[in-house]
Write a structure and sequence with these properties.
This protein has 6 helices and 3 strands. It has about 160 residues and is mainly alpha-helical. It has a 3-stranded antiparallel β-sheet. Helix 3 crosses helix 4 (about 80-95). The N and C termini lie far apart (about 45 Å).
């Protein structure tokens, strides 16, 4: 007969993502819920343009960095090798990006945004602006800037704070 391990006594606080949660997981859970909500809003903005958030994430990196090898795209977007290949395949099929050989290494391909990709990137920003404003409207005056500042500090800690 198998005996299950004894359960520890109930913790004073169980992790939830409800307001007022004081568990050590509360922040991560709230960030996850906020991400879902923001991603849903941005997905709504991108849908009429025929792209998904995963496509837009790659376009964002390409606009920021210029031609980028797939390995670096995967790292920048939190994708794996297979996932980034599928996204780049999609972007090529849509005419939004192209793969080009890297001088000096025929095996490595850099991905570059096309003029059509830049147009879509700009159109996405126009489409997303009113939705993004609606998303942060409840934060009140200056709330969006404050939230952005706090999230930036959390996502990009100063050297030695990681």
């Amino acid at each position: 007969m198998t005996t299950l391990p004894r359960r520890p006594p109930p913790a004073a606080s169980r992790a939830t993502d409800r307001p007022g949660d004081t568990s050590p997981f509360a922040l991560a859970l709230l960030l996850r819920r906020a991400h879902w909500r923001a991603a849903a809003v941005m997905t709504e903005a991108l849908r009429p343009l025929g792209v998904e958030l995963r496509h837009f994430a790659v376009l964002l990196v390409l606009v920021d960095r210029g031609p980028t090898v797939q390995r670096d795209l995967a790292a920048a977007t939190g994708s794996d090798k297979a996932g980034i290949m599928r996204v780049v395949d999609d972007l090529e099929r849509m005419g939004l990006a192209v793969r080009k050989t890297v001088p000096g290494d025929r095996r490595v391909r850099a991905v570059e945004i096309t003029p059509r990709g830049v147009e879509l990137f700009d159109a996405a920003h126009v489409a997303a602006e009113p939705l993004a404003e609606r998303l942060v409207a409840e934060l009140g005056p200056g709330g969006s800037e404050q939230l952005t500042g706090l999230l930036t500090r959390l996502a990009h800690p100063a050297a030695g704070e990681a």
